[in-house]
Queue: 2 jobs
Job 1
Amino acid sequence: MVVIKDKTFEKFISYEEILTKVSTLAHKINSDYKGQKPLFISVLNGSFMFAADLLKEIGLDCEISFVKVASYDKMESTGNIKQLIGLNENIFNRDVIIIEDIIDTGRTISKILEEFQSLGAKSIEVVALFQKPKSGLVREELKYVGFELPDAFVLGYGLDYDGLGRNLKDLYKLKN
Ligand code: IMP
């Protein structure tokens, strides 16, 4: 168990299980993009650990970039998507793969997809490690999803609670 500020979290998914899933996702991408040169764009901060583990398993000729969006206020998605910053690559005519940590309401990823479409990417896919049920986003929009989670607040493996807990190796769930 882990206590952060006023909340207690219990271990939910181990690092070993996460790595197995990450490797499955990477193998799918390796085979789907064989012969292509995709541009991976990792959405910071939450996806830094996932991106690092995933990309170590990617055997493709690829480029890797990072963008940042801040849309989350403590435990509730505010919906106030701030600007997407840090995209230095020209994504026109590129095969883009967006690396996301977790899809909750789906607002963040929808906004990113919209923005990238308007910049003329040739193809855009999303690889998300976790998805919560309320996002309502379906398979065509999210091609690669690791774990389907219940609607609970989670922490660790890159995900934070009020700035803390990103360094935890396993995934934790808020204890009721
Ligand atoms: P959405 O726009 O509601 O889909 O929220 C997506 C972003 O909110 C993710 O990229 C995370 O940074 C953050 N987020 C969503 N759920 C959680 C959670 O359970 N723990 C920590 N961060 C979360």
Job 2
Amino acid sequence: MILLDGNKTSTEIKNEIAQEVLKIKETGARLPHLAVIIVGENGASKTYVAAKEKACQVVGFQSTVIEYPESISETDLLKKIKEINENAEIDGLLVQLPLPKHISETKVTEAIAPEKDVDGFHPINVGRMTQNLPTFLSATPNGILQLIERYGIETAGKHCVVIGRSNIVGMPMSILMARKAYPGNTTVTLCHSQTKDLKTFTLQADIIIAALGIPEFLKAEMVKEGAIVIDVGITRVKSEQTKSGWKLLGDVKFDEVSPKCSYITPVPGGVGPMTIAALLKNTLQAYYSNNQ
Ligand code: GUN
């Protein structure tokens, strides 16, 4: 079993990006700049946004985090997005999800200029992705592709089962793994909450991408010998074994599944850091294309 080390791989990617930033600095040009908007007090969102901000510092990007209280109106949020869209000094913009119920995530996603949409959530960018046109691939699926690629895992002709059909992970992942490209070229089955007898599908899978958000859902009896397992889940649960009183669990029951795998991602330290590396890559891509 080989552990797909997201910490190590994301550090490699960040080092490569930092080298690019040094080259930009030498020319005297302005640096790539990511803006992040966060609304409300969601603890997980705050952790993710802090990690994104820190990653920008590490590679030498400029970053701006804009925090709004839960009570901000949709109109005011949309106004701010418009302002950032028009700001030539900002290359990438993301609004951390989820948003409070009174704000439409669809309206917010559609308000972000597609050329600054480093999350790759805008319908134009999702459409371009489905047609394999140049675009921003959303960060978590892109991070998973990078991990597969950097470990040199062959994917063509394999059967990939994606569990979960969210707009952020499962849906784009299924499209990317099916496209005529590397990594890709797999036969994809997209399973979800209405799938009957899920195990019959997962047992056929050469690659399983678990993105359903239920801790330790995927058990050893659901995985065939030699499978590649990518665990996108990250749920904080109470624990008496840790000092903090909390631990992070993936969607895969790692202890029993990992001995059967050829490759598997750990949680934490697998997909999570790759997501951030992919976001940085997208921001650099936005910088270059907006400066040409
Ligand atoms: N919430 C959970 N994952 C993400 C992400 O990749 N981007 C944004 N904007 N919000 C998220």
